[in-house]
Amino acid sequence: MQTAPAQSRPPRTPMKGYMREYGWAYLFILAPVLLFLIFTLYPVASAFLMSFQQYSVMGSEWIGTDNYTRMVKDEVFWKSMWNTVLFTVGTVPVNIIITYALSFFIFQMKDKWQTFFKATMYLPAVASGVTISVVWLAIFDPTHAGLLNRFIGLFGFDPVIWLGKSDTALFSLILMNWLGSHGAGIILYLAAMGGIPKSLYEAADIDHASGWSKFWRITWPLMKPTTLYLLVTGVITSFQVFISVYLMTQGGPNFATTTIAYLIYNTAFNFYEFGLASAQSFVLAALIIVISVIQFKYFSSDVEY
Amino acid sequence: MARVEFRNIRKEFVDDNKGTFTAVAGSNFVIEDKEFVVFVGPSGCGKTTSLRMIAGLERQTSGDIIIGDRVVNNLHPKDRDIAMVFQDYALYPHMTIRENLSFGLRNLKKPKAYIEQKVAQAASILGLESMIDRKPRELSGGQRQRVAVGRAIVRDPQVFLFDEPLSNLDAKLRVQMRVELSELHKRLEATIVYVTHDQVEAMTLGERIVVMNNGIIQQIASPTELYANPQNMFVAGFIGSPPMNFIDVTKEGNVLRMEGGSFTIPDAMARGLSKYENKPLILGVRPEHISGEDLPGTPNHEYTYAGKIQVVEHLGSENLVYFRIGNRTVTAKVHPETTGYPGMDKTFIFNFDKVHFFDPETEQRIDW
Q1: Which of A27, A193, B149, B313 is deepest in the core (most CB within 10 A)?
Q2: Roughly what angle, to the nearest 10 degrees, separates helices B141-153 and B112-126?
Q3: Do A136 and A244 touch, CB atoms closer than 8 A?
Q4: CATH class given for the domain over B245-358
Q5: What is the predicted ipTM?
Q6: Which domain holds residue A83?
Q7: Where are its TM segments located (chain A) (predicted)?
Q8: How many whole angstroms separate alpha carbon B10 and alpha carbon B290?
């Protein structure tokens, strides 16, 4: 019997074998991780530190929680917070109802019409916020030439200075949001509606369910995951509303449309108070996180995924 | 409970691109009160469409559907007093089992106490008590199937409709549920219309079976009758596993000639087939009516064929032996102790008391 020749190469260690097999994977992961660290985590961490400093390009001064103290004592901050909450409460639920209703009607249509309406409704989402705002500036034109004023004129109303008066400016922005883009939501709702098996409705037909009963007891509950998603993303987006405010009202008149995102911009780039703006940003981020968690906690308990 | 009748029912589907497709072409039948009738046939034969027309989920193109003593052509599904168990069970995923079971009764605005009693009764019959407050996703396939049946029975409908309810279950569970459904039928004394593509399910469950193909009813008969006297080659080939063998033969007097052999048939049989003198015929014989020569107790040795075994499948209780006659593969279901191996020359014995003849053109059985 022959004995096996002695091994000339040292046995491979488990670590070496592991790296040989999976090393490439780590290399591929490294690129996005580095991008995240450099362009997301580092700015966030810097901003967090900045919120405790009197920031200056020539040299920042550590001032503890002074920025936060100034912020809570600032009336404009609370006004902008209130405006943001009003804007969110005024837009998100109404938008969800409008999106759902539009989806429901589109869903009843034949395939080619569904495609047409999906594309049409999604169009505003493709257009830039600037373009949309410019179009709406024309609609809200305070003279008789304004589209909205012409429309209300048909019913005998005098022209309204939509964006120039404290009591109508925020409502105008809300109205613009209602009639704005529902495309993404419609696509999500239509996909969810298409995912409900037809047999559930057939079973409901046999089970004596009325049209309302089918809607309320079958369709709506099965739409909850989509509704929850739209609710959470809608709240986040509306808490960050900026472009329309910046382009259409500049936060005025008399801070009537100053939202928290616009206030942050103003504090940072008009007053160069970067430390205070960072503090406001962190309060906004914390608020969004808290509200999102509450939404998930209270609305997702009976969601069927 | 009630009877169900189809009078000249026709169903066509019109597609702008594909044209008109006839799913059911003039069906006529009566399902008697408390009868368990199974519709069986291959995919696209019109069996599910027939069931959906009874339910009112599909509107017939022409003809009348009668449930009990009412023509239900224009009635909405809810007004037909039927209950249906769907292939995918169609349980409401966001409702508990209790809510699923009570959904129909709640829609009917029945008193709460009555609903609770009916739900408890159905849960007890189907063994669902322990899972009544769970949701469908927490249940196994067999348990979901029971809930679907439960949802049907709480309403005491006139007719139960089952659309391939066991097709999503594994083989073992399917056998178990088959027995349970059979027992349920006896217990409820219900009129049941059941659709399946599985002929074993049809044979074991149905008091009568409606065999369909290409939208046309091929035969309506009891399982025994279908098996013993199929009206045409489709029924003969569809019912029975393995299916009936078909062998091309030519009749010359008392002799049936085929490739590689011949059978001498009795005078009475030859007279009965006189119309086919010197013409081709199809001889139909079931695998269990072909045996190996060395099997003890074979009825007679007059009808033998010497073939070469191609494949042997050992099933334990029996062997399936495949050999060729002409261009057709013939299956013999033989005793497991019968000797045979691929390539072996073997004499096979045909039991001519059980054979059938079919017209090659019409494919109808020839009564001789």
Answers
A1: B149
A2: 140
A3: yes
A4: mainly beta
A5: 0.84
A6: 68-299
A7: 21-42, 85-107, 119-139, 170-192, 228-248, 278-299
A8: 41
